[in-house]
Amino acid sequence: MKILQKALAFVGLLSLCGLFIYALQDAPTDENFETKLINDYNVYALQVPDNLNFAGEPLPLQNPDILERMDRELLVNTYWQSNGLLMFKRAKKYFPVIEPILAKHGIPDDFKYLAVIESGLTNAVSPAGARGVWQIMKSTGRENGLEINTNVDERYNLEKATEVACKYLKKSKEKLGSWTLAAAAYNGGIAGMSRRLKAQNVNNYYDLLLGEETGRYLFRIVALKEILSNPNKYGFNFREKDLYKNIPTYKVEVDTAVTNFAKFAQDFGINYKILKLHNPWLREPHLNNKSRKLYKIDIPKDGFYQTGP
What we know:
With about 300 residues, the protein is mostly helical. It has helices spanning about 1-25, 35, 65-80, 80-105, 110-120, 140-145, 160-175, 180-190, 190-200, 210-230, 260-265, 270-280; strands spanning about 55, 55-60, 250-255, 295-300.
């Protein structure tokens, strides 16, 4: 029995040594690494581009910690494929609304990617109470002229919310001196960023020690910019017809109360659901409008929706 046990142990040891030698021989080397990656499905180590920038301001990728943080966000956002495809689809629908407003205010086009990481280009609601594509807090919205109450919440109006975001970003740039810090301040606040810069005796975002969220913020923006600008490079495959469409609308001016938006919608050949899809800032099925304010309601042009049986 002991002889048999020793024999089995010896065979096991030989097998283990063989597996170890095989593993060493099969380990990726500089010469065979690319060949071994060509299989039915692979996860690749990504090459971080050398010349990444935000709003023309370069990332100091020569610093090891900056390179690692950038690498993380590229990996996370490349391999979260379902979310990535949704960002491509929504960007096609909403960027045409955002881009001209940024340009009008002299805000770099890269800030459209800030909206992507803030909300995924949806009318999100944060635990802190921020709302809409640009995640605007109630106080910030009201300070910048938005109407916010239970009946109307213009943080959900993409055009008006983008205008407010532009005002905030311009103010941040004036106070902090760079577009990178202005973007960081959208998450960490102007006062908060100023305080941290002074306390740590530095003058740029990449030298700051920050909490998890604000510390990842710029890298997430730049990662989404890089991926959405280069779909094939990062393995995203789609056709133009797979992307969401920006439905053309016209504006109807209203300066009175509206008692029933379902009936109002029917007068324009649509239903209440479609009216709300294009005007999410209308928060109730009626409009109070005691002050006789002039509102502009978006109505989709004919032929894009089919309603009823």
